[in-house]
Amino acid sequence: MRTPTLVLQCTDDVIAPVTVGRYVADAVPGATLVMLEATGHCPNLSAPEATVAAVAAFVDP
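C-alpha coordinates predicted for AB hydrolase-1 domain-containing protein (61 residues):
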Protein backbone atom coordinates (compact mmCIF):
# COMPACT_ATOMS: atom_id res chain seq x y z
CA MET A 1 0.00 0.00 0.00
CA ARG A 2 1.27 3.48 -0.84
CA THR A 3 0.63 6.37 1.46
CA PRO A 4 0.67 9.89 0.05
CA THR A 5 3.82 11.49 1.44
CA LEU A 6 4.88 15.13 1.38
CA VAL A 7 8.57 15.90 1.77
CA LEU A 8 9.23 19.55 2.61
CA GLN A 9 12.77 20.76 2.02
CA CYS A 10 14.18 24.19 2.74
CA THR A 11 16.51 25.51 0.06
CA ASP A 12 19.00 26.62 2.74
CA ASP A 13 19.27 23.96 5.45
CA VAL A 14 22.69 23.24 6.98
CA ILE A 15 21.39 20.16 8.83
CA ALA A 16 19.79 18.49 5.82
CA PRO A 17 20.88 19.89 2.47
CA VAL A 18 18.72 19.70 -0.65
CA THR A 19 20.30 16.35 -1.57
CA VAL A 20 18.78 14.84 1.57
CA GLY A 21 15.28 15.99 0.66
CA ARG A 22 15.69 14.57 -2.83
CA TYR A 23 17.00 11.29 -1.40
CA VAL A 24 14.02 10.93 0.94
CA ALA A 25 11.53 11.76 -1.81
CA ASP A 26 13.19 9.25 -4.14
CA ALA A 27 13.21 6.57 -1.44
CA VAL A 28 9.48 6.83 -0.69
CA PRO A 29 7.34 5.53 -3.56
CA GLY A 30 5.09 8.26 -4.90
CA ALA A 31 6.40 10.95 -2.57
CA THR A 32 6.01 14.60 -3.47
CA LEU A 33 8.97 16.88 -2.85
CA VAL A 34 8.26 20.56 -2.27
CA MET A 35 11.17 22.96 -2.07
CA LEU A 36 10.55 25.91 0.23
CA GLU A 37 12.49 29.13 -0.32
CA ALA A 38 13.39 29.19 3.35
CA THR A 39 16.37 29.02 5.67
CA GLY A 40 16.82 26.52 8.46
CA HIS A 41 15.71 23.03 9.36
CA CYS A 42 12.29 23.91 10.75
CA PRO A 43 10.23 25.59 8.03
CA ASN A 44 7.24 25.72 10.35
CA LEU A 45 9.26 28.32 12.27
CA SER A 46 11.25 30.06 9.53
CA ALA A 47 8.55 30.05 6.84
CA PRO A 48 5.21 29.23 8.46
CA GLU A 49 3.05 30.66 5.67
CA ALA A 50 4.89 28.72 2.97
CA THR A 51 4.74 25.55 5.08
CA VAL A 52 1.00 25.85 5.63
CA ALA A 53 0.44 26.60 1.94
CA ALA A 54 2.45 23.54 0.86
CA VAL A 55 0.65 21.23 3.27
CA ALA A 56 -2.77 22.63 2.35
CA ALA A 57 -2.07 22.20 -1.38
CA PHE A 58 -0.95 18.61 -0.78
CA VAL A 59 -3.92 17.69 1.39
CA ASP A 60 -6.58 19.40 -0.72
CA PRO A 61 -5.26 19.76 -4.28
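The mean pLDDT is 95.
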